[in-house]
Design a protein that fits this description.
0% strand, Growth Hormone, Chain: A, 19 helices, mainly alpha
Length: 428
């Protein structure tokens, strides 16, 4: 049994619950890690493509292979996180991603670029960022899960807003190679203190989720009846039980369609905007503005997802995204771009709600594993979608077919989320 002394070490009386420190350090790493590799790396699309003389399709393949790696590695990472905790995965993956970026800055051939980004940097990202950070935070909260996960996901959007501008500045001042090297060095140095702070589960250090006090035996029955303890109201599905529900597969379809279309658009967003008449600097400002709008949206919508219907929020958010894509195709350049950016910001803002839905529907115990299972499918979509966009651009010289394809894909996502009802875990 955990001693009172150990408990007091991590949460002294009248001090902040240790779970919020997990949120803070995870958010910092997520801001700069995801901001650089997921949201920010498309800023390197054109500089690298031009420097190495690569077609749009082959450059898209670099991003797609990274997503294929995520699909293969995601389930393994999820299983490892659920079994051994998030801490060792964050340490290993963060260092691998950072060092991989430093080596990538020296890539002189297409295949070196492929190996270093898809085979090293992406492996590190899959291990340390995204699902691992969300799994780490998810373990520490039940009642306050919406607030905690929304805060983390907001940091991802903040990374997109601020890091894109930093990368744009770096590319213009010192070139893409030096910018990538500095980015990798920073992520490497940031990973070490973050990993030292991370603890995988509150129970490992004598705490309970949400900072709830330990229950006395005499209080247990009353807490169950009143619903005042987090542990008493949580449903924890096994992987097999979750996969046997219709809700899991509807959420999965919603995730696949959302992330596939969104990822392809973000990978190609700078060439898309340039075809609309924007220069690189203006395009960077628009993209940063989009992620900036997503910052309050992720937080507000994520918290709202804990109080209101996640199904309705996702339904309307994805449909607004579809309208934004259609507007980019149909309307004059700047008006269409503004509506498109607002729609994309709402789609990015709603992201936290679908992962909150997974945690809320299926519990803490197998959250990372279920995210890993989902990653097999949605990363396949993220593999195909950018290639499709690159192929269309190479052979038509525009992205019109891409936009007219992805708008209804967003509608499919909206309907899938709307149909996913919260399952009830029945006793065997």
């Amino acid at each position: 049994m955990t001693s009172r002394r150990q408990r007091n070490e991590f949460t002294p009386p009248n001090r902040i619950f240790y779970g919020w420190w997990i949120v803070i350090v995870s958010s910092i790493l997520g801001m700069f890690g995801n901001g650089s590799i997921s949201n920010g790396f498309p800023r390197f699309f054109e500089p690298i493509r031009s420097d190495l003389g690569i077609s749009y399709f082959r450059m898209s393949l670099v991003f797609s292979l990274a997503r294929a790696e995520g699909g293969v590695g995601g389930p393994l990472v999820g299983w490892l996180v659920d079994r051994y905790g998030a801490r060792p995965m964050i340490f290993f993956g963060g260092l691998l991603a950072g060092i991989g970026l430093m080596f990538l800055s020296q890539a002189r051939s297409y295949w070196a670029l492929v190996f270093l980004f898809a085979g090293v940097v992406s492996v590190g990202k899959t291990a340390a960022l995204g699902q691992t950070l969300m799994a780490a935070v998810n373990q520490w909260f039940i009642r306050r899960k919406a607030l905690a996960l929304s805060t983390l996901m907001t940091s991802f959007a903040a990374g997109g807003a601020f890091v894109v501008l930093l990368l744009d500045f770096g590319i213009s001042q010192i070139g893409w190679r030096s910018t990538i090297f500095v980015t990798g060095l920073f992520i490497t140095l940031l990973t070490i203190p973050v990993a030292l702070v991370i603890r995988s589960r509150p129970e490992d250090i004598g705490l309970l989720p949400d900072g709830d006090p330990p229950l006395q035996d005499s209080d247990w029955e009353n807490s169950v009846v009143s619903g005042q303890t987090s542990v008493s109201v949580e449903q924890n599905f096994t992987v097999k039980q979750a996969l046997s529900t219709n809700s899991f597969w509807l959420i999965l379809l919603g995730v696949i369609t959302r992330v596939s279309a969104t990822n392809a658009i973000i990978v190609h967003i700078f060439p898309i905007l340039e075809l609309k008449g924007l220069d690189e600097r203006t395009a960077s400002a628009y993209v940063a503005f989009m992620f900036l709008m997503a910052i309050p949206l992720r937080f507000v919508l994520g918290v709202a997802g804990g109080k209101f219907s996640s199904q309705k929020l996702l339904f309307w958010g994805m449909n607004i995204g579809a309208i934004g894509i259609f507007a980019l195709w149909a309307l004059p350049s700047h008006l269409g771009v503004v509506i498109f950016m607002v729609g994309l910001a709402i789609v990015e803002g709603i992201t936290s709600v679908n992962w909150l839905m997974v945690g809320d529907y299926f519990g803490r115990s197998r959250f990372a594993t279920l995210m890993g299972v989902m990653s097999v499918f949605h990363n396949f979509g993220m593999f195909i979608a950018p290639l499709f966009a690159g192929f269309v651009r190479d052979y038509t010289g525009s992205y019109d077919i891409v936009l007219l394809t992805f708008a209804p894909v967003f509608v499919i996502s909206a309907v899938s989320f709307a149909l996913a009802r919260k399952p009830v875990l029945t006793a065997v």
